[in-house]
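Minutes, methods subgroup
Present: GH (chair), OT, SY

1. OT presented the first of two proteins processed in the latest run. Sequence and structure tokens recorded below as shown on screen.
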Amino acid sequence: MAQDKYLAGKVAIVTGASKLSGIGAAAAIALAEHGANIAVHYSSNAASAQEVVEKIKSLGVQATAIKADASSPDFGTTLVAGTLKAFNTSNIDILVNNAGTAVMHDSAASVPADVWDDVFRVNVRGPFLLIQAALPHMKSGGRIVNTSSIIAKLGSSMLPVYGASKGALNSMSIALAEELGPKGITINLVSPGPIKTDLSMQGSPVAARLERNQHIKREGSTEEVAAAILFLSSPTSGYITGQNLYFVTNMLDQHRNLEPGNDVNLQVHIRQEMNTRRTEQTPILTITSPQGTGETLVAVHLSLLVATDLDIPNNNRYSMRFHAKPFAVLVLQIFRDYKSSRVYGFKYGESQQPLEAGAAVLSLQTEEDKMRQATALRPMQESTEDGAKYTALQNRIVRLEAQLKAVTSGQSVPTKGKGSASETETPQSESPLDCSCGRQIFNTNFSIHYDSGIHWVDLFPSLRELYFQASAEAESKWSQEKRGPVLIGAVSPDSLALAKYHPTPGEAELLMSIFFENVNPFVRVLNKNAFQSDMQRYRTGKHPQPELVDSLLFSIYGLAVMSLESQNAVDMFGLPKEWLLDKYQEAQEIALHRLNFIHSSEPAVFQNFLYYLVFLFERGSYRTATTLLGLAVRIAQRIGLHKDPSWFSYSPWMSEWRRRLWNQLILLEQRAVAFDGTQSLLSFPWDTQLPLNADDGAWNTSLFMKPSEIPSPTQDFTDMTPILVKRHVLSILCPVRQKIRTRPYPQQVQHIEAGFKEATHFFQSVGTDKQGLANFVQAVCEIEFGNLRLMAGQAVVRSGSANSEFLSQLYLESLALLERIASVRNSVPNPGWLWYLRTSPPVFAIAITLTHLCSEPANCHSERAWRQINGFFDEYGKENGTIQSASMAALQSLRETAMLSSGFPADRPAVAYSDDQYLLQSPENMDTDYLIQPAADLFSDMWSNSLLGGSLPTI
């Protein structure tokens, strides 16, 4: 921590803290050491509690002991009243609910009803009553920490009541986190395993069971638990709530905890000679029979693995026990830990044994698989003269080149030959939802940037002039700027220069935690497991590329700060958000130069460069980000990210990583196209695919996990993952946007309505567990399709064929869309919705509204319009500071012109209308069919996850 007495003046209540050898007393002392005044709760032993009080007072803070019965209904009020009186205060800052009781039983039948009630009164009702009594005195910044137990997770036949009570405490804490989070109060849990106290279970059957599964064969100490309670009570934990910190050493790894039974003992031998070229016939992993006969049951060969993928010490041996089930299950279990793309050479006894249905893919190789392996293992020696045979990979390259030639010459795209399965002809149907544009999103070979032909600014002649003027002013100002954030190029690569940019260890941990909570779920590139492994080596000075880790860390710090609201950044770090962003931008640039990122061919370096571009886009440095994006495209081509990794000898994990890097580049480029009017650089063909993971569970679990396959498309929203929802909506938006280009306005509306109906039909029947998410996604669809309607209408205005009635109707539609956006913004309880201010729907609606106000300043909806307009600019300015794109500068100029015409002040706040409010406040003759009109350019993972805790404003 940056300061030693960071809890000075805080008041804390710690229950169950009367024994110096216990967790409660250790926690109380730890809080006192950092300045907190402590109320020590005890139930009966006043002398022991006084010892703890004297120990705390010797640290220079106030302390008092308060007696209260944890099973009593007035437990909470007694403790709170005694604390307020003892310290002459009206505030309580920290609660540590540590008091608890446990009774062991041989069986469920031996548990009396009154014992059940007693345990639940102390372990569940007591903490709740104390929280209930303390909340009126707890302000923003308050901290609540409840002590649970590993038994709530693992269960124990001897502690069924205790485990159930702690499980209830866990559930209650998570529920309260939802209520208290908006108030700035956090509530978390710590769940100790075996801890050395006078109530230690060492020597008992419960302890023996736990110890069998521990990597660290000892009991934990009370001080170790207290350190965690101290952190969760500190100011640096302000962004952590509803979490449970387990004090265990691998006891949650259930799949390794196989009980004895009808088992087959097998020895798994793993050899690693990665620096030596091995042949296809040399197995790297074998499973032999338990009798020591040396008979090979399963062999996995080096040709099917990537060398860096199997990081296991030489000659390591594992003895595993598996139930006597079909060997297919055995193989699946082993390769859940040690990833492989294929298993073959399967033998059992003297004859070849078929695998059970559903697992045959593990043992069978197709002809295409063998061809891929052969292609990856040997250099291509085939002649390219006429009549010579091409390899499968060469044939595919030829086809792609033919497609590129056909497209650039205006010819029809050649189709694949007989037997091909992965590519299809471009559809030619004219139904509303057919599409002949490039659809990388649908696994064909061309760009997804179907909207690159026109920039939204081009639909407004007056705004277009302001846009070019703002662009010219920005160029001039940029060239003359002497101060401000350093931009990549003229920076020092001095390695010593980075030392001043590193945060304190506590701040670094907080920023990394924020990154993986807020950022990584949406910028879906970094594997958490791999990162943590790298950090362990980095901190001990054993990482072979510390400069690479430095660069990644500064990217993580910058994006983590970017995901915070301005006031939250000040509360957490005591510094303005803009100052922190300047600091980490400079650090990223220095770190990238140290890596020689322009010439590097390492995907990890390119990943850090992509993170830097995400940072620039989210900060609003559009001109610099768009320029550097062109460089990123060329680097990606040079290192082959645009090629299908399955045609090379990459592991499944490495292939997934490369696909994710390319996908992130696509999304960044789409951001530049949609918002800043640039032309796509990705119109050349490529044959890579989208990331395979429909959710990130397997991706973030282990480097040895094979990435999950995309689930089959479903018409039931309850079975949809966020990624599938995104792809479902994009699959409709893409053709709709293309079809409205060349159609008359009535047909455009027809296509938009058909697309909206198709995109939202499966929201009709949703379970209660996903109703909130479904409502949010449907609201986003309404906004995005509504934006399409506005674009179609503005195109009519641009052509000069719109009458006054049409102009008024378009004005009301744009105003209704702004109110819908404001309503959704106010219903999403996190800063993540702020990203939407930098996308097409709100700025396009603002442009239409301002244009109408310039020509007709005095209308019955003027005040309502100005509330939304000023609210938008206030929110945008608060999060973006002085940095803005030429598009936003042009809108600001148009706003000033409209204000001069209308005379409305610039300080009217935005009002989020509900449908009912809107109807009550609208004139009687208003056409309410246009209350909520739908729209969309981007549908990122964040839209589907915002209600579940996402925050980062990403692409």
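2. SY then presented the second protein from the same run.
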Amino acid sequence: MLTLPSMDNNKMPAAAPPHLPLGAFIRAQHAQILKDWEQSVRQLPHAQRLSRPRLLDHLPDLLERIANVVETVHTGGAASLEDMPEIHALDRLDSGYDLDEVAAEYALLRTCILHFYGDSVKSGGTESMALAMREMVSFNRTFDEAVAAAVSRYAQARERTLVALDRISEAALGTENLDTFLPKLLRVILETTEAVDSVTLLLREDDTLKVRSSAGLDEEAMSGFSVRVGEGFAGQIAAQQRPLEVRSAATDPLVNSAAFRTRGTRALYGVPLLYGGEVIGVAHMGSRTAFEFSNEDKLLFRAMVSRATGLLVQAWLADSEQAARAEAEAQKQLLKLVIEQSGEAIIMADAQGAVRIVNAEAKRQQCCGLKQVGPSEWLIEGPLLTEDERPLKEEDFFIRRALQGELVTDARWKSRRKDGVARTFSGTAAPLRRPDGVLAGAVLTARDETERLHREQERTETLALLDLLLAAIPMDMAFLDRELRYVRVNEALARSNGLPAEAHLGKSVAEVVPEYASRFEPLLRRVLETGEALRGFEFSLAPANNPSGPVQHWVADYFPVRTRTGEVLGIGCIIVNITGRKQQEERLRQTAEFRERFMGVVSHDLRNPLNAILLSANVLLRTDGVHANHAKVARRIVASGERMVRMIGELLDFTRGRLGGGIPVHLHPCHLRQLCRHVLEELEISHPGRELRLNAQGHFPGMWDPDRLAQLLDNLGKNALDYSPAGTPVDFTLLDCGDTLRIEVHNEGPPIPPALMPVIFEPFRRAVAGDAHPTSGLGLGLFIVQQIAQAHGGTVSVNSQEGQGTTFTVQLPRHPPVGMPRQPGHLY
């Protein structure tokens, strides 16, 4: 039973008011009644934590309605408390009151009123007493009705709330997954209140509320809906941390979800989800039939949301705990994998020295063979030795020292295996301590250094051999790293740079030869960037050891130096002084130029007397009455002279080709087929009895030098006639290839020797060594053919095989290349 606080009977107003009817008295003493009631009711446990506005709640309205009912004793009218007791009861239920505490509040209110009114009646006399008794009857009846209504509504609402909360607990039972729990929760809320036809839950993420679950609304419309805290209906609830209600959600501008407009929602009531004083979400319920929810419905909704908040937080905590456990387990497994798959041996012992962890590498190294044993039972495969192979004392074993609190770093030891081979190990042993500093154990990490030491020894020996090789090679050689610093340099290069070899090491090119760095560093960096070697790079400069001396000539190869995997380590440099070779080449060039100029001058100067001889011989042949013997001699002179003219022409063409930038051509429109037919007619005259055949398919007009082209065809024809048997034909074939024309001259003579094929177009070459054919000239015919083809932008090639004869192929563009001068003319 709840014990009511006692009233102070000596407590009276400063001056007793004159006697008034009870209704008027309640109104007149309204403030004093509430004040004394508050002082008394504050002694109740639940009332102590309520604010004054929340404590007084609907009491002022309740007193006014009690006064109205009591006054009917005088007026004879009808009045009631309406739903005020129920509202007060629901509010107290929402505040966590028990039923006896609600009854105690009413009892204290009755006591306060009657206490003050009794004093007023005492001063009014017998007549006032009779009237007061009738008022007291009405007052007590009214109060009894209020208490009964409050208790009934409290009990109903409490029962309904308990049922709803029980259903919520059932929905949460056995599930910690929010995606499973939330739809069940909303369905319970939806089914608990008849007027509610939609429920939505939004959870907070930073400053945004996002719909996590919804019932009764278009799922597609609500899916992904979010609103910032402070904006819209749900945002305002979160920002103000208090419930909010609108009468027409479909039209209210505060509601910014289209789902409510589409559905025609009227009443919309929302409450914040509070945990630890922070808003973690917002829940709201809606109705299409009611413009507002009853107080009991809102109370029930708040109660269910409050319970749901606890379950939600519980589910969150469960999720967080499960995630933390999963993460911890994953970290544990990852650590286990790291330890087990580590390339280093790892041995861990507890504080008592019992080995707890031995990874695969430790087993492979056979450092320790047992787990769960103490130091006295450790098994070591083979004796442990110092670096100089003396036995390692047991007390000096590194993990034992770490168990004594010592940090052992850069330790080295050896272990002799059963096969008698001693392997070298290095490692670190460290004590393991808990956060409070207490020793928890020790760990030893070790690695097998045997192969690495062998590799280092091999590398040292290799570098020693490399240094010997660099010293013995007469060429300048160096190796640069990726920063263009000298790593290796031989004495030859050091002498060229004018510095000792030691002075190069670790320094960059710019530091060793600053005057040449701007010229060579870009080349070296390009080799590094592209990974492609730069070979045969020639340059001329005065050597660094004698900057004022004569300029010398060099040729260099710069190439990337790679590992076996292809990684570029740096640049290798090989530099050769070719000054002597350049001087020899210059002497040879000058000799050849002198010879060619001499031949050009001689051939040019021979033309004048030769022309005089030919002119005289022709005049003699045309003279009447010349003796037959004299005419024969004159014809021989003319033939020999014409041969000399051809030889001199060839020499002049050779001189132009070598010294004059190529044989000059003057382009005119001409027709290749007609030109070829004219040349063949001349060849038939000079070679009676030989068969020359022409095969031309297509159209053959173009821009060429007709005289030079005729010379090209004549030289190829004479070459084919000279080097083929007398009874075999020579075929000229013209092919139309669009913008290109192809000329093929084929003979059935013996093949050209393979050794001569690469040089067949060089001057003074003959198809057969030692050839003395009477019609052969100086061996310049094919050289001139190549020069004429190139002057037209074309090419010439040869194919000669046993049984297939020899074919010379000329490719000519139909029109001159861009930039070649054109001569006006007409096709014929």
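Chair's summary of item 2: Residues 544 and 695 are 67 Å apart (CA to CA).
Next meeting: continue with the remaining queue.
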